[in-house]
Every structure is written in structure tokens, then in C-alpha cells.
Write a structure and sequence with these properties.
This protein is α+β, with helices and mostly antiparallel strands. The chain has a single domain, classed as Muramoyl-pentapeptide Carboxypeptidase, domain 2 (2-Layer Sandwich). 24% of the residues lie in helices and 12% in strands. It is built from seven helices and seven strands; from the N terminus they run H-E-H-E-E-H-E-H-H-H-E-H-E-E. The strands form two sheets. It has a five-stranded mixed β-sheet with strand order 2-4-5-7-6, covered by helices on one side. The chain has a two-stranded antiparallel ribbon with strand order 1-3. A hairpin with a 2-residue loop joins strand 6 and strand 7. The longest helix is centred in the N-terminal third of the chain and has 15 residues. The structure holds zinc ion. The site of zinc ion has 6 residues, from strand 5.
């Protein structure tokens, strides 16, 4: 058989598996609800590391199917208020968590990195447990997200060359995120990012309360130290390390990196910022 015929034969054989192309009951959120806005920050340079993290080969939100279905219900409820969810991080391969740990220990810190932890140095960030060796994100039940007001002007795009103010500064001075003003930027390691922080304005408080309430109605639990971090405890399972690749590469049930298809060691119960 010619190579092209072999390829076609294989494609025909595996196509029934295309409905479940990702390991462990994971799905692309875009396949469940394409109306949910996605800005997967660790797939680009607009994050505290300043570059894509290992395993983020595509800017796609991947979650456990139950998490995706619950998010779709939240999104439908928010649509009546002309609001949308905006995903900032979803499934995080274990290798990306290891990448964060190595970054935290590399002994260097730039001004752009410092914007995410203005009250203490990067070395302290690790020592104080702000970055953990295991993350609930690797199990596919933890997500980072914010709200977009669909009737409002969107803020200007992120410009890597610009010297923005730190993540606790007013919204018009800190890194733009194209979302409502929650009082701090995403991934801000600061007491002001604690969901119940008293230092936020009444308007910022209302946005945080609205997000927590909408998520809680579908079973999501907020992490008290990060207004953006939620998890769906009922869907818990093991951690994984498969890379996030483009949706089309999965169309024929193709998994680019077979190392990740089996669960990795237990994710641990430790919770921390960037958990
Ligand atoms: Zn998180």
C-alpha cells in the first residue's frame, strides 16, 4: 500500500475515536461552549514569567468535561446580563508547573516580573509557598477566569515593551486585561487579590461577588487568596502532563506526545497562589 493510502486507512480506522481525542476525560472548552472568551496567558508572553510555559503549544482552554459543562451553564446565565466569562488558565500540564518552579528559583528578577509581586521579591515568592510543585490545574478541575462586560469598551491590547504599573495599581495604569476591573490584575501575588480584600472599591467588590456567586451556583469553589481561581471538587481526578496542542491536531484522535496520556503522580492537596 502506498504511504498516502496507509494514512487514509489509519484515519478511517481511528475516526470513531475523534469524539474523545484527549486523555482522561478532558475536552477543549471551545467544543463545549465557543462563546466563552479565552485568553490563555501562559501560552504567550503576557504573564509573570514573560514567555510561554512548557507544554502550552496552543492557546486553548482544556478542562474535564464536567467542568466544561458547568462553565457553559454559568455562561448562559451571564449572557442575560450582557456578561461573558473569560478563561485565563485551565488545564496546566505538570511540565508547566515544573517550569514555574524552575523560574522561581533562577535567581534573577526583572522589573516586568516584579509587577506581579510588588510587595516582596521573587525569591520570597517561592519560599513563602506562593508557587507550589503540584497544581490542581493539572487535574483539569481548576480554572482561572474573569468577567467581560460585553457592553463596555475593551481596554487596549497588552504591549510587552510598555512599563506598566504593578498589578495592584488602578486599572488604567496596570497591564490591560480586556475585562471588568476586579481591583488587581491576574496572578497578582498580593493581599489586595484576596477575594475578600477590604482595600478594593465598592464597584470592584460587586464584580468579585457577582463572579463568585455565579460560579458557586454551579458548584465551583473560589480560592480565598485569588479572586480568579475556582475549582469543581466533584470532578476531581489525577494530574496529567500531556501538552496542550491545537484542536485540529486531535481531529483524528492523534495525540502528539504519548508521554502525557497516563496520569502523573498525585497532585497533592497543597493550595497556594497560582495553585
Ligand atoms: Zn489558578
Amino acid at each position: 500500500m502506498k504511504p498516502i493510502m496507509v494514512a487514509l486507512a489509519i484515519a478511517a480506522f481511528v475516526s470513531p475515536a475523534a469524539a474523545q481525542p484527549l486523555p482522561g476525560g478532558f475536552v477543549f472548552l471551545r467544543d463545549i461552549d465557543p462563546t466563552i472568551i479565552q485568553d490563555i496567558r501562559y501560552a504567550g508572553s503576557n504573564n509573570f514569567v514573560g514567555r510561554p510555559l512548557g507544554g502550552y503549544e496552543a492557546a486553548e482552554c482544556v478542562v474535564k468535561r464536567d467542568v466544561g459543562l458547568a462553565l457553559k451553564t454559568v455562561q448562559q446565565e451571564l449572557a442575560a446580563q450582557k456578561l461573558s466569562l473569560k478563561m485565563l488558565d485551565c488545564y496546566r500540564p505538570a511540565r508547566a508547573v515544573a517550569d514555574m518552579v524552575a523560574w522561581a528559583q533562577n535567581g534573577k528578577e526583572t522589573a516586568a516580573e516584579r509587577r506581579y509581586n510588588p510587595a516582596f521579591s521573587k525569591a520570597d515568592l517561592f519560599r513563602l509557598g506562593y508557587i507550589a510543585r503540584h497544581s490542581g490545574h493539572s487535574t483539569g478541575i481548576a480554572i482561572d477566569l474573569t468577567l467581560v462586560d460585553l457592553t463596555a469598551d475593551h481596554s487596549p491590547p497588552f504591549d510587552a515593551s510598555k512599563a506598566y504599573a504593578d498589578c495592584t495599581a488602578p486599572a488604567n495604569a496596570r497591564t490591560p486585561e480586556g475585562s471588568v476591573d476586579m481591583g488587581t490584575g491576574y496572578d497578582c501575588s498580593d493581599v489586595k487579590a484576596h477575594t475578600a480584600a477590604r482595600s478594593v472599591t465598592p464597584a470592584q467588590r460587586r464584580w468579585r461577588n457577582l463572579l463568585v456567586a455565579a460560579m458557586a451556583r454551579q458548584g465551583f469553589v473560589n480560592y480565598a487568596k485569588e479572586w480568579w481561581h475556582f475549582s469543581l471538587p466533584g470532578a476531581a481526578g489525577p494530574a496529567y502532563d500531556f501538552p496542550i496542542s491545537a484542536r485540529h491536531s486531535h481531529d483524528a484522535g492523534f495525540i502528539r506526545d504519548p508521554r502525557g496520556v497516563q496520569p502523573v503522580a498525585a497532585a497533592g492537596r497543597r493550595r497556594s497562589v497560582r495553585a
